[in-house]
Design brief:
Elements (H helix, E strand, L loop, with lengths): L10 E8 L5 E8 L5 E7 L6 E3 L5 E3 L2 H11 L7 H16 L5 E3 H15 L1 H11 L5 H11 L1
Parallel strand pairs: 4-6
Antiparallel strand pairs: 1-2, 2-3, 4-5
Helix pairs in contact: 1-2, 1-4, 2-3, 3-4
């Protein structure tokens, strides 16, 4: 591992820890040349998830895009940024458990909505109204009745 301070090519590992999700390894290192310490993170490189849009277009799954959608739906609610991050992490794990790496966008919305529904019903309705594309009040009422 190259030292970020002096660019020397060798360092020694002082400490290794696994993250809570067991997906990332944190290593505390010390440069053999300048003796400065730094931290590195290791994560398994996975094949990208491809989102298949309703019109057939394909794009790479974007953690931040889902997070932004959830943030918009949870404005002025009790849902925290940590809750949103946890939902996105759970959705990504669920998608990776699928037999394929090509995932319909509607499935992503459904997974996110189900997690959001457990935390805050108002945020759930806001999110569902966008991803289900309610076109009239009757569809909105139908979804509300399911919650009640």
């Amino acid at each position: 591992m190259k030292c970020p301070f002096c660019s020397y090519q060798e360092s020694k590992v002082l400490e290794t820890r696994l993250s809570e999700d067991l997906e990332t390894t944190r290593r505390r290192r010390e440069c053999i040349h300048c003796t400065k310490r730094f931290t590195t993170y290791e994560r398994v490189e996975r094949s990208p998830l491809i989102v298949v849009k309703k019109d057939g277009r394909r794009e790479q799954f974007d953690f931040e895009k889902l997070s932004r959608g959830l943030q918009k739906a949870t404005e002025r609610t009790r849902v925290s940024a940590d809750d949103i991050e946890e939902i996105v992490n759970q959705v990504e794990q669920e998608l990776r458990a699928q037999a394929t790496t090509e995932i319909p966008s509607i499935l992503i919305g459904e997974h996110a909505a189900q997690h959001l529904k457990k935390i805050d019903k108002v945020a759930y309705i806001r999110f569902a109204s966008v991803f289900k594309q309610f076109v009239d009040v009757e569809e909105f009422e139908k979804e509300l009745r399911k919650l009640l």
